[in-house]
Amino acid sequence: MSVEQPLWRALTGYRILAVLYAAGVFAWSYPEYSTPLPGVLFLLLLGGWTFATLRKLGSADRCTLPFLVTDIVLGLAGILLTPVVDGHHQVGPTLPSIWVAGPVLAFALKGGWRWAAGASVLVGAANVVERGMITRSTFHNVLLVCVASVAIGYVIEVARASERTLARALRIEAATRERERLARDIHDSVLQVLAMVQRRGTALGGEAAELGRMAGEQEVALRALVSSGVVPEPGRASAPEPGAVPGPRGAAGRGPDAGGGSGTAARTAPCDVRALLSSYAGARVTFAEPGAPVLLPGRTAAELAAAVAAALDNVDQHAGDGAHAWILLEDEPDAVIVSVRDDGPGIPAGRLAAAEAEGRMGVELSIRGRLRELGGTAELVSVPGQGTEVEMRVPKDGN
Question: How large is the greatest C-alpha to C-alpha distance in the chain, in angstroms?
Answer without folding.
Answer: 112
